[in-house]
Design brief:
The chain starts with 6 loop residues before the first helix and ends with a helix. The chain has twelve helices and eleven strands. Helix 2 packs across helix 3 and helix 4 packs antiparallel against helix 5. 35% of the residues lie in helices and 22% in strands. The chain is of the alpha+beta class. The chain is elongated, with a radius of gyration of 29 Å. It has four domains: 60 residues, Winged helix-like DNA-binding domain superfamily/Winged helix DNA-binding domain (Arc Repressor Mutant, subunit A, Orthogonal Bundle), CATH 1.10.10.10; 49 residues; 84 residues, SH3 type barrels (Roll); 78 residues, Alpha-Beta Plaits (2-Layer Sandwich), CATH 3.30.70. The chain has a five-stranded antiparallel sheet, covered by helices on one side. Strand 1 and strand 2 form a beta hairpin.
Length: 334
């Protein structure tokens, strides 16, 4: 049975043989690659006509050589459609410019563009005039923290981090075993076992002032599955709790709710008046509360009761900022 060898791999093989000055020909290449001589001839024609390979045949040596010694077949073969996809990807990845890896990605995209043959007709400058991506607000991460956390994630080493909780200015030392890293709405989080809390916790990388590798290595528990554990999350917050959430959305909000998938386990019921009731199970209610509040009067929590009360309290505090006694106006949550 013939081995499956894609054309691009075969082209790289032919390119190396020619660059090594072995003067290969159709017969020798076909025998070594286990394909027909006609297949090799089509490859050579493609290299010459489509990839601008400066090939010539030496009758004395009975084989091919490059007339330009520095020529090398591009390792990646891209066409106009490929380049367009690369351009879009580079724009999308701009949302990660708060990370130290972003400059490397930009450099990689530049190298890809430079390696393209002259036949590529897309002008990135023209695409810039036709496409825009609005980037969500994002936090800044120290390069030392980023590099150290990802090194620990790769080498399974424990970390000592200097960490401050939201709203606090004092940093405390924590020893953690990083299990998983997740990006969410402009922030990067490391899911780790916290030695002081003796449990899995979520740490925002932007709130880590300093990270240091330790000599202690750890093993991720075999029963840890981030995607399974956080299956019922809404946002990045999660816990061991389970809440059956039901939300009513007005007819004005319904079209926007229907055009997106907000939760993996969501169920939608459309009422006769075109309003919608969304149901799902959540393991944490903080981000559910924030999301519902963002819809204003077009959304109302039906269940659970604990979330209904949380929404009421939040609305009372908000109303205090726009009227009522001076004491209410001066109140600052938290």
């Amino acid at each position: 049975m013939k081995k499956f060898k894609p054309q691009h791999s075969r082209l790289l093989f032919i390119d190396k043989k020619i660059r090594d000055r072995t003067y290969p020909n159709c017969a020798s290449l076909a025998e070594e690659w286990e394909v027909s001589a006609k297949t090799i001839q089509r490859d050579l024609d493609y290299m010459r006509d489509m990839l601008d390979a400066p090939m010539a045949y030496d009758a004395k040596m009975r084989g091919y050589y490059y007339t330009e010694e520095r020529f090398q077949l591009p390792a990646i073969a891209l066409n106009d459609s490929d380049l367009f996809a690369v351009f879009i990807a580079e724009k999308v990845l701009k949302q990660y410019e708060n990370t130290p890896v972003y400059p490397r990605l930009r450099s990689l995209f530049a190298k890809i563009a430079e390696s393209l043959p002259d036949k590529i007709t897309i002008d990135p400058a023209q695409l810039n005039e036709k496409f825009s991506f609005f980037i969500s607000p994002h936090s800044m991460i120290k390069e030392q923290v980023w590099e150290t956390v990802f090194t620990a994630l790769r080498t399974l080493q424990s970390l000592i981090i200097s960490y401050a909780k939201p709203g606090e200015i004092d940093f405390t030392a924590r020893t953690i075993d990083p299990y998983h890293v997740v990006s969410y709405q402009g922030e990067w989080y490391v899911i780790a076992f916290c030695h002081s809390r003796q449990g899995i916790r979520t740490f925002a990388l932007s709130r880590i002032n300093k990270a240091q590798l330790t000599e202690h290595c750890f093993t991720v528990p075999p029963d840890f599955d981030f995607h399974k554990t956080t299956r019922d999350r809404f946002g990045v917050q999660w816990s061991d709790e389970k809440y059956d959430v039901r939300i009513w959305f007005s007819p004005l909000a319904a079209p926007y709710i229907l055009e997106r998938r907000w939760h993996e386990g969501q169920e939608l019921h459309e009422n006769s008046d075109k309003s919608i009731i969304m149901s799902f199970t959540a393991s944490h209610l903080l981000e559910v509360k924030r999301w519902v509040l963002s819809w204003g009067g077009m959304a109302r929590i039906l269940a659970p009761e604990i979330l209904v009360n949380e929404i009421k309290k939040e609305l009372e505090l908000s109303m205090g900022n726009y009227g009522g006694t001076d004491e209410k106006r001066d109140h600052k949550p938290g």
